[in-house]
Amino acid sequence: MVCxxxxxxxxxxxxxxxxxxxxxxxxxxxxxxxxxxxxFIEEYREKLVxxxxxxxxxxxxxxxxxxxxVEYVKxxxxxxxxxxDYGDTPAFKGCYEASLYVVGSTLKLIKxxxxxxxxxxxxxxxxxxxxxxxxxxxxxxxxxxxxxxSYLLGVVKFKQILYVDIDAHHGDGVFYDFYYDKNVxxxxxxxxxxxxxxxxxxxxxTGGGEAVGTKLNIPLPPGAGDGxxxxxxxxxxxxxxxxxxxFIILQAGADGLKEDPLTGLRYSEKVxxxxxxxxxxxxxxxxxxxxxxxxxxxxxxxxxxxxxxxVLYNLLNLSR
Length: 320
Ligand SMILES: [Zn+2]
Fold this sequence. Notes:
By secondary structure, the protein is α/β, with parallel strands linked by helices. Helices cover 37% and strands 12% of the residues. It has an 8-stranded parallel beta sheet, sandwiched between helices. Strand 1, helix 1 and strand 2 (48-51) form a beta-alpha-beta unit. Zinc ion (ZN) is lined by residues 167-169, 253, 255, 297.
């Protein structure tokens, strides 16, 4: 059996793009298409499945987001003026539809993984981890990860989801919206919140109520490189070892690589290779390969290419 990897591909994925000079623009995904996907397409014709972006159902979006907030985004999208938050996430004409494509694409990959049409998936424009149920934040309008986790627990009825976030920024939207949910295991390795947006993600936060012990934050100081990350990842693996997830989601932000314009971490793309390879192996041992990778942040375009190349190479090559 050929083990297929689905990748979101289509011009709809380029619509999620804030007006210049905002750092989160569609040329990020264009670079991925040209310099990563473009390099694999011929050689891996058997294994690569290009998946067209689509909208989610309204009910699916509302599994996570509040209806009032969805209506608010729709209105701001029609006018295209002002900000959706306090100054990081501008509204633009069509931002509602663009955000729907991000969420729908992540869900479409999940459905294809569940039907076994593909075994792993990658959505380069997904991973919008700062958005909350009721608000935008940090370049994130709708939280495709939040919708995905809500779908996997609420509709598919999976018992345990593992979410790993290696973006340089703490994934506060996902972390706090599932803080009290013991079925959501979270590992988040990021630049110390005292030195970087969103200012959260401390060691003592391990989950609330019956979920105590299901979350692990590992903040790293500015300047941390591969050595510090590898040490953190060893700790993460011993933590993950205690659980048996039914589905694994990796937010593979590339903004921890050195010379990102927004952060102070100094990883190399080796970090993406190590993490993808560990989770890939784990997914095949624990949950029939059900692993979904989402692009997340990354504002140095060359770093995006280096990091996501490692991710996709690993998914394509180490599969059964
Ligand atoms: Zn980030």
